[in-house]
Amino acid sequence: MRKLLLPLLVIIVVVVAWPGPAKLPLRWVYVSRGLRSDQDVDEIRQIARTASEHGLNGIVLAARLDAIDLQPPDYLARLERVKEICREYHLEIIPNIFSAGYGGSILSHDKNLAEGLPVKNALYVVKAGEARLGPEVPVADGGPAVENAWTREVEVQPYRCYRISFRAKTEGLAPAKPFSSGPFRLNVQTADRRNLTPWRVPVPSTTDWREIRWGFNSLKYDKVRITIGAPGEKTGKAWVDSVRVEEVGLLNVLRRPGAPITVRSDTSGDMYEEGRDYARIADPQLNFRFDHEGPAIKLLPGSRMRNGERLRVSYYHGFSINDGQTTICMGEPKVYEIWRDMARRMHEAVAPPRYILSMDEIREGGTCEACRGRNMGELLGECLTRQFRILREADPNADIWVWSDMLDPNHNAHGNYYLVEGDYTGSWKHIPKEMGIVCWYYEKRAQSLPFFSDLGFRTLAGAYYDADTLDNPRGWLDQLERTTNAQGIMYTTWLNKYKLLADFGDLLPK
Asked: What is the pLDDT of residue 193?
């Protein structure tokens, strides 16, 4: 009996003493392609070959699969070719889907599902069969051109929509870094240091005079400080001219149950009815920009409104930030109807074993009637749980992951976040523990990975992010080795930089 036990003891000692980190079962590469051309397919093939030859086993595919019903026939044909490529190279397809913060796929189905910022009691005046905005605060005009930066404190009405227009010229400013604001900025700041228009101004480092138009919602504030230009920049020069700040009405007005419109008499308070007193209100150019005028209110025959009457109009408008990022409302039921339909269609077309919920950077919310007053952490958790269940309805075995930031108190799960009314703190308490968490904030990896691991979640690192070295993945691997239930790592590029993909694969424990 002792002779039989001795070899077994030797084997156990060898296994326990084996050096190096455990092999990560999930080794992915992020690929964003619209499948609009055969070149997209050819590039995916090259990436897939490199990934497979160097030990990766999955492609996280951002290809608007959650708007698959709106894609042309050649898209579907290319998708079949991508599936064949992944089968050839033994790679899973992991669709990146269901974004609320970047609402493109939902908004391609219905733009009115954007989150709405409130306009309250805007003054309209009836004249010649229609009612148009009658601004109550004088327009602010900027005067002659100024060098470096134009700054002024401007009085506004609370909960109104304003447009800022100006001319800009630059010479030799430092170029903007990817995904960050350049030296030329537009800031609309409140007394409590809130920026009402987080936006990347499209002004190059050097340009002749060009006209820029953007805007903001004043929310609860009656005064803002507007700064336009490149204050404090030591490289290059900027000039600002012809600044104009004006109230605008019904621009990008939203029409859905959670974004109602009311029109009432300013004197009697009587409510007027759409379809009886005035025609349906809609912005035919709804694009979440400030490059057009909002519609007038058209009176119908037999309207109770009278010429010269003053009206008070309340509504909700959509708004984009940064580079056109438009958030959708997580409280509007139609959003989930669309996602349920897309889940069924994606499963039929691809039947992927896993998904990543693209629920990162949700920078608006809590402002329309469908979500106002909600605990934003609970609402986000409810949204993620419903997405999880929708995907499991289509495939009970689907493995579902989500980007970490809106669930991470070390990242974006907190209050005072962009234009959100409310607090995302505690969102992590309201999601299924079966979800996996893709952590991507490199500087907080030592806090984020154990935070989710200690709560019982599986984790995966979103690594790389377009650097010129692999120091970032090495740092993630070091922390993953110390993290209980760490499942994998991903080569994550937003700039289509795959030069280091082979070296990344070789770096991973085998």
From this structure: 93
The residue type found at 46 is: Q
Give the number of other Cβ atoms within 10 Å of residue 496's Cβ: 12
Distance CA 338, CA 333 (A): 9
Identity of residue 342: M
Tokens coding 344: 């069924």
Confidence of residue 201 (pLDDT cuts 50, 70, 90): very high
Percent helix / strand / coil, the chain, rounded to 5: 25, 30, 45
Adjacent-strand bridge partners of 489: 27, 461
Per the structure block, which two tokens stand in for 416?
Answer: 């005072």
The pLDDT score that the predictor gives to residue 2 is 34
364 φ/ψ sector (left φ>0, alpha ψ -120 to 50, else beta): beta
> Of how many residues is the chain composed?
510
Looking at the DSSP assignment, which residues form a beta bridge with residue 278? 274, 299
Mean model confidence pLDDT for the chain: 93
- Residue found by looking up tokens 């090495």 in the block: 474
Asked whether the CA dihedral 173, 175, 177, 180 is positive or negative, the reply is positive
Instruction: For the beta carbon of residue 163, count every other beta carbon within 10 angstroms.
Output: 18
Q: pLDDT per residue over 314-334, tens digit each?
A: 999 999 999 899 999 999 999
Name the residue with higher pLDDT: 354 or 235: 354
Look-up of token digits 């409310």: 422
Tokens (6 digits) for 470: 């692999």
Q: What's the pLDDT score for residue 195?
A: 95
Give CA–CA dist 289/201, Å, rounded: 13
- Torsion sign over Cα 42, 46, 49, 51: negative
Token duo for residue 244: 């104009």
Per the CB < 8 A criterion, the answer to whether 377 and 418 are in contact is: no
3-state secondary structure of 458: strand
Q: Where are the beta strands (DSSP E) in 172-282?
A: 185-189, 207-217, 223-229, 237-248, 262-265, 271-272
